[in-house]
Amino acid sequence: MSIFVNKETRLLVQGITGREGQFHTQQCIAYGTQVVAGVTPGKGGQKMDAVPVFNTVKAAAAATGANCSMIFVPPPFAADAIMEAADAGMETIVAITEGIPVMDMMKVKNYLKGKASRLIGPNCPGIITPGECKIGIMPGPIHKPGGPIGVVSRSGTLTYEVVHQLTMQGIGQTTCLGIGGDPVNGTNFIDCLEAFEKDGETEGIVMVGEIGGTAEEEAADFIEKTLTKPVVGFIAGLTAPPGRRMGHAGAIISGKSGTAQGKLAAMKKSGIHICENLGTLGELCAKVF
Amino acid sequence: MKIHEYQAKELFRKYGVPVPEGRVAFDADEAVAAAEALGGYPVVVKAQIHAGGRGKGGGVKLAGSAQETRSVADEIIGMQLVTHQTGPQGREVKKILVEQGLNIAKELYLSIIPDRATAMMVIMASEAGGMDIETVAEETPEKIIKVYVDPLAGINPYHCREAAFGLNLPASVIKPFNQMLVKLYKMAVDYDCSLVEINPLVITAEETIIALDAKVNIDDNALFRHKDVLEYRDLNEEDPLEIEASKYNLNYINLDGNVGNMVNGAGLAMATMDIIKLAGAEPANFLDVGGGASAEMVENGFRIILSDENVKGILINIFGGILRCDVLAEGVVQAARKTGINVPVVVRMEGTNVEEGRRILAESGLNLTTAVDLKEAAQKVAELVS
After folding, report:
1. Yes or no, beta carbons of A249 and B221 under 8 Å apart
2. How far is A100 from chain B (nearest CA, A)?
3. Starting at the edge strand that comes first in sequence, how are the strands of the sheet with A273-274 ordered?
4. pLDDT tens per residue across span B51-88
5. How far, CA to CA in Å, does A264 sit from each of A220, A250, B111, B149?
6. Are A34 and A68 in contact (CB under 8 A)?
7. Per-residue pLDDT tens over the stretch B240-254
8. What global pTM score does this model have?
9. Which of A47, A160, B243, B381 has its CA 20 to 30 A from that of A201?
10. What is the dihedral of CA A147, A153, A155, A159, to 10 degrees?
């Protein structure tokens, strides 16, 4: 079992003919993902390797039965691409693009309300169900198929570090996903926690947060009230100075809000197993799970 | 991106949001000329730096005559203005804004920000104007009105009424306030503002509404569609090393510690800073070389880290995904040969092409310390700088 994506997922890639889109599509195919279509406006009728390219998402979906889209469209056009995917009925939309204006994402988020599409990201590494499908830019080989742990994170390479440590301890993963480093994103921690709770194969969860916003505090509250499975939590940015954007658009301490200390306190209170030192996360997980 | 008060007021004027008459001056002569041109005293002389709390730090003064304008301008231009946002070293004042004085009847607070939790624009208003809004939020949160606006539907008259009646405005200023708020909202959206703040927004004795102060931040991710705003960038307000890094698309922030570090990915970079601290040292910077870094970017990153004199050791932590370990290793070797690295360097690599990367480093003949995992890497670098 897994959450959101599995071996049945039929993927199309928006921005498939760009440098990044092309490279990562090839990597996804090599991992075993069913990539059924690509979309690049003006390049309909061409092929990227063996993958047929279409001008619009609707045309691609109609011809191939794609139900999930991965987006590599540059920031100025990414919001448009996400809304196009939603209108074409994509069940899951994974937006990799970094650098989308906040105003665009606020409009997208409100546009998606009441629609069936689930947006993951933007500014995220994507989602992988190890051994079944990889939709994103993460290195496949560091993952260990079969579960029983789910991983959800706001970061990219930090997620790889976490997954790597789990694998080194012999702990496999059900699904690992990045929800993105932007202030406004689609799927949030709570959505993922809820899905992992329902997933029969997932026995525990690693949640990786960082400074900025209140998503971790809200997740902690949800965990305390609802979750039965154990959660190991880590927060990056204890040494981050206030008022500075730490790489991710959403990673900023504003006044007294969004500090790592505040998040850790909320997570401790809710019974999450806190990892204080990233170097020991794998060992902690081996003890808890 | 932060801009100065006088620049924010230029944007306000463009949208018809009322602001006091004023001019920018770079020295005392210009300040006096500006004051005379305003046609009456008193005038207000305001330091232009990218930080709040200027009044408390002595960066905002009233002047009742030409002579007083000269002495106040002399005092403020060139001073190291220290506020709660500048840090103890303060910021040198290079220019001032000279504005007409107003007959203030009441001070209000008004801001518009994108609210990340709700994905709505939020208008915040308070009768407790002129005070630090975070203090108001903490001590008397009931004094802050919040009006949420769906960015797809935009601002409507009822949003304005909620704010205006919430502020207990006198009947005579409700209409001008509402008109001003609609214009301000339009500006906030048009210019992708991550913050528009007026503190204080003033009701004058003549019952007009005027933005006495103006603070505007613009979403860095949206600058591609605001070329006019790029001209507002003031390099005097930025750290020289951060300016240098921005030329190479490196995400660098200078900090006070002694362990330089270079990491791929923002989250992992923050976590690396944290683990340096846990090992007993202090991070000297944040540096995310990004997912698609080239050997050249790595080399520039090295050079920038080494230009910080406080750096006594460097930790490189790369989790190879898109950025392959062999590319990183080549960058490190190139940088070491060109810049002559004179501090100990600890390298920890994992992920794509890690074997090849380790081989390149080992065969380079450079004096590098390698570490197998993050914990060991942090301990080694902390020992080397202690």
Report:
1. yes
2. 6
3. A133-136, A126-129, A172-178, A148-153, A204-210, A231-236, A273-274
4. 988 988 899 999 999 999 999 999 999 999 999 888 88
5. 9, 18, 30, 31
6. no
7. 999 999 999 899 999
8. 0.94
9. A160
10. -20
